[in-house]
Amino acid sequence: MSGDSEDPFSHPIFGMAGAGGPFGMRFSTSGGRRCGSMQGMSSSSKPRSYERDLVCTLEELYTGTTKKMKIGRTRFHNGRPVKEDNVVTVDVKAGWKEGTKITFSGEGGQETPNGPPGDLIFVVKCKPHSRFTRDGSHLIYKVPVPLLKALVGFTVPVTTLDNRTLRVKVDQVVNPKYRKVVPGEGMPISKKPGEKGDLIIEFDIIFPRTLSDDQKTKLKEILANS
Predict the structure, then answer these.
(1) What does pTM read for this prediction?
(2) Contact 134, 126 (CB under 8 A)
(3) What's phi and psi for 127, nearest 5 deg?
(4) Domain boundaries, the chain
(5) Rounded CA separation 69/75 (Å)
(6) What are phi and psi of 149, to 5 degrees?
(7) Alpha-carbon separation of residue 111 from 8, 17, 69, 106, 174 (angstroms)
(8) Fewer CB within 10 A of the end CB, N or C, for the chain?
(9) Which residue intervals define the domain Chaperone DnaJ C-terminal in the entry (predicted)?
């Protein structure tokens, strides 16, 4: 994770060239003293939020995990900007979806010496998985299956995200649109503790490249009345 790469001295606030110099300050004289007033700046204005990606594996979003994130930020000390590292702990809840936002109030950068720091917001991003595709709270698992097995039935072994092995029996004739649903073996539902979505198995039927004349004849006899 990279921190805020913005150079604090390149911010427009350091480049203002008003009649009174930097920060848009205007000066007046009174009794021989020069007094300054800040123009167009208010410490009560809402500070900018800082968003960073929180990259998780599908396994981490299935089981939940804890991540320590080091983020660079700019803070002012004695009126001078200082770049520093900030380490925050994120408790990733089982079932969180991509796009979930976690806000740490006041843990972001500071843009002005007297202004409040902004919020630090993490946005969940999920790495692509080699076996599963997530669809909301459901998991999609695609299986190649030879035509013979698609016709007579077979058993699909599935290794889950928490390393259990399911043996899913398929005894229907599998056509290209057929999907086998295994209830309760999908992703946890973060807002409903203890509940999960479904595991949905899709099939890619593998047809033989060639058939002999004898095989074709036998298939015609077998499938004639189907």
Answers:
(1) 0.74
(2) yes
(3) -70, 145
(4) 49-126, 132-206
(5) 18
(6) -65, -35
(7) 8, 18, 22, 12, 61
(8) C
(9) 51-208
